[in-house]
Amino acid sequence: MTSKAERRRQRQKRAVERFSELAGRQIPANTEPPATVEILRPTDQRMTQGVWHIAGQFAPAVDKTGGDMLGELYHAREIEKHHYDAGRAFQQLCALWQAELGIGSFRSCLDITGGGFDATDGNAALNRRYEAVKQRLGAARFLYLRTELDKGAGQRPKSVEVLRRALEGLAE
C-alpha cells in the first residue's frame, strides 16, 4: 500500500510524461542552473572614473558617487559630509517639485499642453517647503544651487568655495 505523498508524486510524474509526449520532446528530470553566472561589471575605463562598492563576488558594482558632480566632489574630499547631505536634500526637493508640476527637463516651444500652476493645487506641504528654502537662500543662491547641482559627472562648479557657502546656507 502506497502513501498519500507517494501517490501524489506518481500522479505528477505521469502528468509530466503525458505533457512531454504531447509536446514531442523530452523534459529532463534533473535540470540544473547554468554553471557560469554572468555578472554585470563596468568596463575598466569606467572603473577608473568612479568610487565603486562591490559587495561580493557575484554582486554588481555600484558607483558611490551617484554619477554626478556633487558625489565626485564629496569623494574627492572637496566638500564635507553636511554639504553633501544638504545638496542631496536640495536635489530631492527640486525633483519632487518638478514632478509635482508635471514638467520635464525639456519642453518644446511648440508644446501647448501644459497649463499654469496654481499654488492651491497639489501637495501644499511640498509647496511650503520649497518656498521656505527659496526664501531662506534668496533668489541668487537658490538659482546658483539649481544650476550647479544639475551638473553631471566630470563637470566642475564655477567655484567650489561659493558652492560650499551656498550649501552651508541650506544646512543651517
Which overall shape is indicated by the principal axes computed on the Cα atoms? elongated
Number of helices: 7
- Rg over CA atoms, rounded to whole Å, is 28 Å
Number of domains: 3
Q: H/E order of the elements?
A: HHEEHHHHH
Beta-strand residue percentage: under 5%
Number of strands: 2
Strand order of the largest sheet: 1-2
Structural class: mainly alpha
Tell me the span between the first and last alpha carbons. Answer: 79 Å
Mean pLDDT: 78
Question: What is the percent of helical residues?
Answer: 40-55%
Low-confidence stretches: none
Biggest sheet descriptor: 2 strands, antiparallel
Would you kindly provide a written description of the structure presented here, covering whatever features stand out?
The chain is mainly α and 172 residues long. The protein has three domains: 1-32; 40-64, no CATH class; 69-171, no CATH class. It has seven helices and two strands. It has helices spanning 4-23, 44-47, 69-75, 81-101, 124-137, 139-148, 160-171; strands at 52-54, 61-63. Strands 1-2 form a two-stranded antiparallel sheet. Helix 4 (81-101) packs across helix 5, helix 4 crosses helix 7 and helix 5 packs across helix 6. The N and C termini lie far apart (79 Å). The model has no long low-confidence stretch (mean pLDDT 78).
